[in-house]
Amino acid sequence: MKRRDAKQSPADPLETWLEAQLKRPDSAPDLTRKVMGRLGYMAVPPDVAQRHRRLRHFARSGIVLAGFLAVGIGIFMHNSSPEARRPLEMTLPAAVGQDLESSQQRMGEMFRSLRRLTPSLELPAESHPDSFRRPNESPSQDDGTELMDDAINRSAIAPMRWV
Fold first, then answer.
1. Does residue 131 fall inside a structural domain?
2. pLDDT bracket for residue 149 (50, 70, 90)
């Protein structure tokens, strides 16, 4: 809005009406107390403060509950899917027992192969004149050398498995 001098042309009727409206006292309600109270600058009655506090706690606990439900449903859906990893039905004590049992078997095989290596008082089978090799017998069955080597190789790993 432009200011006019008294010597200039007569006032515009729209400007005079606007000035009159702006100078008129306003009958609108005063909302200062409510606005300042919501901003925390004024005292609030204890029952209203308690109600607001309760609503905030309910809203926060509802959000936390919804989050836990979402995570729980996600875990349940993942575990029921075919892509989920399934642990073996074996427990830790059963696994240790099975490992000890296999180690015992290997140690037994090793001792048996060492006993075969020790010299015996009997003469070797080739020195007996009436001994002969049967046609269906393989060299590993009469000598025991291949079985012995295999047992030694398998039992050599046993002590290193615990390191």
1. no
2. low
What is the predicted pLDDT for the residue at 122? Answer: 57
pLDDT tens, 31-74?
A: 888 888 788 887 878 998 899 999 999 999 999 999 999 999 99
Q: Tokens at residue 72, please?
A: 């729980």
Q: Which domain holds residue 154?
A: 99-115+142-163
Asked whether 108 and 152 are in contact (CB, 8 A), the reply is: no
The CA dihedral of 11, 13, 19, 21, to the nearest 10 degrees, is: 170
Q: What is the 3-state secondary structure (H, E, C) of 24-73?
A: CCCCCCCCHHHHHHHHCCCCCCHHHHHHHHHHHHHHHHHHHHHHHHHHHH
